[in-house]
Design a protein that fits this description.
This protein is an alpha/beta fold. It has one domain: Alpha-Beta Complex (Spore Coat Polysaccharide Biosynthesis Protein SpsA, Chain A). Helix content is about 30%, strand content about 20%. It contains 7 helices and 8 strands. Strands 1, 2, 3, 4, 5, 6, 7 and 8 form an 8-stranded mixed beta sheet that branches. The radius of gyration is 16 Å and the shape is globular.
């Protein structure tokens, strides 16, 4: 599916975390053939015709930028990455978004089993007008990537430091469309070495998308 010109959907990849439980930078871990987790996620978004893609860095920003920048994405740095949680990185990404973009996919940098088909389904729901916020769901559990229409960005930017994007999403539950998917990859990430090992095993069992 190629995005129709009348709809402009971008992505923000949140790749600023300290990876303290992993013990090493999660987005730089190997994934697939000669790729890191970050490079694999960018490849999946490219396959889904998402443009532009903004990568928000923090910890080990130079190393992350060295992997991301050659892939044609925009890289921005979150100065508050040590204390700001995910919200501060999303704010940085939204502030860097071009004016013509109508919606943004919030993509976790530690979710390597992201499926191109899931990205398609989420974007298609927005394009069809089914919701101004679109989230994938597996067995009635909301996951990522979540698409958020521009009309809600200012509310996110206005959130206090201890807030979270879900505060805005939950406040507009009547505007949310859920897309049921057949893969639990939307719920899983790689916080610990055990998570990483399990996700690599699960990736071998995933159907090609």
């Amino acid at each position: 599916m190629k995005q129709p010109q009348m709809f402009k959907v971008a992505a923000v990849i949140l790749a600023a975390g300290m990876s303290s439980r992993m013990g090493q930078m999660k987005v730089l871990l190997p994934w697939g053939e000669n790729k890191t987790i970050l490079e694999h996620i960018i490849a999946q978004l490219n396959r889904a015709q998402v443009n532009p893609i903004i990568v928000v860095t923090g910890h080990l920003s130079v190393e992350v930028q060295e992997k991301a920048a050659p892939l044609g994405v925009n890289v921005v740095h979150n100065l508050d990455y040590k204390t700001g949680e995910m919200l501060s990185s999303l704010k940085v990404g939204l502030r860097d978004m071009p004016a013509h973009i109508e919606a943004v996919l919030v993509v976790l940098g530690d979710q390597p089993r992201i499926q191109t088909n899931t990205i398609y389904q989420v974007m298609q729901a927005f394009i069809e007008g089914r919701g101004e916020i679109v989230a994938p769901s597996f067995e009635r559990r909301r996951g990522h990537p979540i698409l958020i229409g521009r009309r809600f960005w200012q509310e996110i930017l206005d959130l206090p430091n201890d807030g979270a994007p879900r505060d805005v999403i939950n406040a507009h539950s009547d505007r949310v469309a859920y897309v049921e998917v057949d893969n639990d990859s939307i719920l899983r990430d790689v916080d610990t070495p055990a998570d990483y090992a399990e996700e690599r095993l699960r990736a071998l069992l995933d159907k090609p998308d």
